[in-house]
TrEMBL record:
Membrane topology note: Peripheral membrane protein
PANTHER family named among the record's database cross-references: MYOTUBULARIN-RELATED, MYOTUBULARIN-RELATED PROTEIN 4
Natural source organism: Alligator mississippiensis (American alligator)
Compartment annotation: Endomembrane system
Name this protein carries in UniProt: Myotubularin-related protein 4 isoform B
Active site: C410
Source organism phylogeny: Eukaryota, Metazoa, Chordata, Craniata, Vertebrata
The family this protein is said to belong to: Belongs to the protein-tyrosine phosphatase family. Non-receptor class myotubularin subfamily.
Domain Tyrosine specific protein phosphatases: 379-423
Binding site for substrate: N323, R324, A325, K326, N348, I349, C410, S411, D412, G413, W414, D415, R416
GO MF term (any one): phosphatidylinositol-3-phosphate phosphatase activity
Length: 684
C-alpha cells in the first residue's frame, strides 16, 4: 500500500485525491492487516471472527485462520445473510459459498452490516475498484504513457482487431463487401460496434430501414468468413414481426444479399479440401449426437450459385412465436427466398439463472451427498451446455461442410447469440484457440456486440430489474472448458486461463468487463481509466500455457455433445467452500499478481513422472497423505511434494507494495496432469 513515501508526482496526487482511502477501523489496536494490499486498496475494517482475523477492504473480504485463508473480491459476492445467529453465509456469483462464524450475535450483525454496505450496487462507475487500482498504479511511475502501455493495455491484436480480422479472413472489400460507418459515434445502435461489415451494394439508407425492423436496431452484419469456401456467419436480433405480421423489404433484401455475396467471394478452396472433409472428418462429425439434414456430410456444392442461407434462431419455436405478442417474432421462410429457419430451443436467461442457482445449491452441500448424481441432473446445467454445443456444431457443419452462410439470432442478440457465434468460431478456426485469438474473440463477439456484462454480472449502477443478472458468459466459458477437455492438444491456453477469466469477469479489478456496451465504455473512458484483463492473461504469461498444445493443427473441431460426455467444471464450481490450507491450490484464489506476473516455475512440470501408472496421481497431489500404492516411478511421491511446494505464494521483497503470486499455477499443474492422464488412457 502506498504511504507518505510515494513519489510526489502529479499522477500520485490525483490518485490520492480522486480515490482517497478511508480510515481503518480496528477492533483491537494490536491487530495487523494479514495480507499485502494492492495499489489503491485500503483496509477499512479489521477484527476477529472465531479463530480467525477478518478484514474488509475496498476490494476484498479476507478471513485468515491459523492454517487457512478465505479471500474473495467484494464484487464476486452476490448476497450475504446471518444464519443460526452467529454465522455469516456468503453466496458468490461463481457458485462458491463462504461461511464465517462469530462468537456473539452482536458481532455477527455488525460485520453483516459492514459487508452488506461493501457489496451494495455502485452509485457510479468510479465506485468500482478498477478505477482506483488503475489510478494508483499510474502513481507509481512518473512516465504515464509507458506505464499504461506496459501494465494496462491489451496488445495491438486487440486494439486493431477489426482491421486485422478483415485481412486475416480474406474479405474482398473492393467488389463484394464494404465497411459501413453508419454507426459512427453509435448513432444507429449503442450496443453495436462503430464499423459494420455488409454486402457492398447495400446502402446506408437501406441499413437504416432494416434497423427500424430489428429489435434494438441490431441489424444483420457479418462477423466471420470461412477461408476455404467463403461461407460467412452473420448475427442480428429478432425481426419485429408482431401479431400483425409486419414485413420489411430491405431486411429481406439484406439477408438474401449475404448469401449472394458469399457466392461472389467464394474463397480459395484447396484441391483436396472436399475430399478431406467428406471422409476422415466427415465420418467423425456425422456421429456427434443429433440428427439433422443440415449436418449431412456432403461436400461443398458449386459456389457459382448462392447456397441456401441458414437462419438459426436460438429460441424454441414456441418462444419465438410468443415474442410476437411483445412486438418480436421470427423470419417467415416464405418471405426470405433461399433461406431455411431452424430453432434450437435454448433456454432464456431466467431459466439459466434458475439452473445456476440450483447448481450452486447442490455444490454447496456437504461432501459426498448420497443423491449427488440425481441432484446434479436436476439442475439441468449440463443439459443447457449440451444444447449450446449442439447449436455451435450445427453452425460449424453448415459453414464448413456445406459452405452455407448462417445468420444467428435469439431475441435481443446479446446473450444466446454470442454464445453460439463465438463457440462456432472456436470450432471452425484454430486462431481462436490461441491465447491472442481467444482475446480477439471475446472482445469482438462479446464486448463489441453489446453483451450486457454490467447487468448480467450484477455490477452495473442504477439497475431497476434484478432479474437481469445471469451467468451467460460463465456458461459459455464452461462450454469452452468442455471443448478443452475433449481436445486437450488443440488449445494454446489451459484451464487456469479460463478459471482466471471467470474470476475477473466478476472481480472488477480490471475494466474489461465493465459496462453494458461499447458506447458506455467510451462514455466513461473505461479503456484509458482502467487496466485490461489481457495484461494478465497475455500470451507471454506461461502460467496459462497448455503444455500439450500442437500449434500446427488446422483441425475443425467436432465435439461430442451428449450430456454423458460433459463434465462438471470442478475447478470453478467445486473448490472447497471451507477455508483452504495455506500453500495449496486454493490459496489466494482470486488475488491477481502484481504488474509483473511471476512466471510459472517449470521445475515441477519438467519433472512429470514418466509412468503409465497414473491412477492415483491426482488424488496424491490434491491430498496431504502419501500414495497408498506402489508407483512404477520411484520419484512419484517426491514429485507431488515438489508440486505442493511450488504453489506456495511468494511475496515481493523490494518495496512491500505488491503481492506476487504464482498466478494460476495450481490449476495449471492439475490440468496438465489431468490431460496427461487422458492422453495416456483416452476415453472410448
Amino acid at each position: 500500500m502506498m504511504g507518505e513515501e510515494g513519489p510526489p508526482s502529479l499522477e500520485y496526487i490525483q490518485a490520492k485525491d480522486l480515490f482517497p482511502q478511508k480510515e481503518l477501523v480496528k477492533e483491537e489496536e494490536s491487530l495487523q492487516v494479514p495480507f499485502t494490499v494492492l495499489q489503491g486498496e485500503g483496509v477499512e475494517y479489521l477484527g476477529h471472527a472465531n479463530d480467525a482475523v477478518i478484514a474488509i477492504s475496498n476490494y476484498r473480504l479476507h478471513i485468515k485462520f491459523k492454517d487457512s485463508v478465505i479471500n474473495v473480491p467484494l464484487r464476486m459476492m452476490e448476497s450475504v445473510e446471518c444464519r443460526d445467529m452467529f454465522q455469516l453465509h456468503i453466496v458468490c456469483k461463481d457458485s462458491k459459498v463462504i461461511r464465517c462464524h462469530f462468537s456473539t450475535f452482536k458481532q455477527c450483525q455488525e460485520w453483516l452490516k459492514r459487508l452488506t454496505r461493501a457489496i451494495a450496487r455502485p452509485a457510479k462507475p468510479e465506485d468500482l475498484f478498477a478505477f482506483a487500482y488503475h489510478a494508483w498504479c499510474l502513481g507509481v511511475c512518473a512516465d504515464e504513457e509507458d506505464q499504461h502501455a506496459h501494465l494496462c493495455r491489451p496488445g495491438d491484436h486487440v486494439r486493431y482487431r477489426f482491421q486485422m480480422e478483415l485481412a486475416r479472413m480474406g474479405f474482398d472489400l473492393q467488389n463484394v463487401w464494404r465497411v459501413s460507418d453508419i454507426n459512427s459515434n453509435y448513432k444507429l445502435c449503442t450496443s453495436y460496434p462503430q464499423k459494420l461489415l455488409v454486402p457492398v451494394w447495400i446502402t446506408d439508407k437501406e441499413l437504416e430501414n432494416v434497423a427500424s425492423f430489428r429489435s434494438w436496431k441490431r441489424i444483420p452484419v457479418v462477423v466471420y468468413r470461412h477461408l476455404r469456401n467463403g461461407a460467412v456467419i452473420a448475427r442480428c436480433s429478432q425481426p419485429e414481426i408482431s401479431w400483425w405480421g409486419w414485413r420489411n423489404a430491405d431486411d429481406e433484401y439484406l439477408v438474401t444479399s449475404i448469401a449472394k455475396a458469399c457466392a461472389l467471394n467464394p474463397g480459395a478452396k484447396a484441391a483436396n479440401g472436399t475430399a478431406q472433409n467428406g471422409t476422415s472428418e466427415g465420418n467423425e462429425a456425422c456421429d456427434t449426437d443429433f440428427d439433422s439434414s443440415l449436418t449431412a456430410c456432403s461436400g461443398v456444392e458449386n459456389a457459382g450459385a448462392p447456397q441456401k442461407l441458414l437462419i438459426l434462431d436460438a429460441r424454441s419455436y414456441t418462444a419465438a412465436v410468443a415474442n410476437r405478442a411483445k412486438g418480436g417474432g421470427c423470419e417467415c421462410e416464405e418471405y426470405y427466398p433461399n433461406c431455411e429457419v431452424v430453432f434450437m430451443g435454448m433456454a432464456n436467461i431466467h431459466a439459466i439463472r434458475n439452473s445456476f442457482q440450483y447448481l450452486r445449491a447442490v455444490c454447496s452441500q456437504m461432501p459426498d451427498p448420497s443423491n449427488w448424481l440425481s441432484a446434479l441432473e436436476s439442475t439441468k446445467w449440463l443439459q443447457h451446455l449440451s444444447v449450446m454445443l449442439k447449436a455451435a456444431v450445427l453452425v460449424s457443419n453448415a459453414v464448413d461442410r456445406e459452405g452455407r452462410p448462417v445468420l444467428i439470432h435469439c431475441s435481443d442478440g446479446w446473450d444466446r447469440t454470442p454464445q453460439i457465434v463465438a463457440l462456432a468460431k472456436i470450432l471452425l478456426d484454430p486462431y481462436y484457440r490461441t491465447m491472442e485469438g481467444f482475446q480477439v474473440l471475446v472482445e469482438s463477439d462479446w464486448l463489441d456486440f453489446g453483451h450486457k456484462f454490467g447487468d448480467r454480472c450484477g455490477h452495473q449502477e442504477k439497475v431497476e430489474d434484478q432479474n437481469e443478472q445471469c451467468p451467460v458468459f460463465l456458461q459459455w466459458l464452461d462450454a469452452v472448458h468442455q471443448l478443452l477437455k475433449q481436445f486437450p492438444c488443440l488449445f494454446e491456453f489451459n484451464e487456469a486461463f479460463l478459471v482466471k477469466l471467470v474470476q475477473h469477469t466478476y472481480s472488477c479489478l480490471y475494466g474489461t468487463f465493465l459496462g453494458n456496451n461499447p458506447f458506455e465504455r467510451e462514455m466513461h473512458n473505461i479503456y484509458k481509466r482502467t487496466c485490461s484483463v489481457w495484461s494478465l492473461l497475455r500470451a507471454g504469461n506461461k502460467n496459462f500455457h497448455n503444455l500439450l498444445y500442437m500449434a500446427s493443427s488446422e483441425q475443425v473441431l467436432h465435439p461430442v455433445c451428449h450430456v454423458r460426455a460433459l463434465h462438471l467444471w470442478t475447478a470453478v464450481y467445486l473448490p472447497a467452500s471451507s477455508p483452504c490450507p495455506l500453500g495449496e491450490e486454493g490459496m489466494e484464489l482470486y488475488l491477481p499478481s502484481g504488474s509483473q506476473s511471476q512466471e510459472f516455475s517449470g521445475r515441477s512440470l519438467d519433472r512429470l513422472p514418466k509412468t503409465r501408472s497414473m491412477d492415483d496421481l491426482l488424488s496424491a497431489c490434491d491430498s496431504s497423505s502419501p500414495l497408498t500404492r506402489t508407483s512404477s516411478d520411484p520419484n512419484l511421491n517426491n514429485h507431488c511434494q515438489e508440486v505442493r511446494v511450488s504453489l506456495e505464494p511468494r511475496y515481493a521483497s523490494t518495496d512491500g507494495s505488491e503481492l506476487l503470486l504464482e498466478e494460476g499455477s495450481a490449476v495449471a499443474v492439475r490440468e496438465t496432469q489431468k490431460m496427461m492422464t487422458g492422453f495416456l488412457f483416452p476415453l472410448m
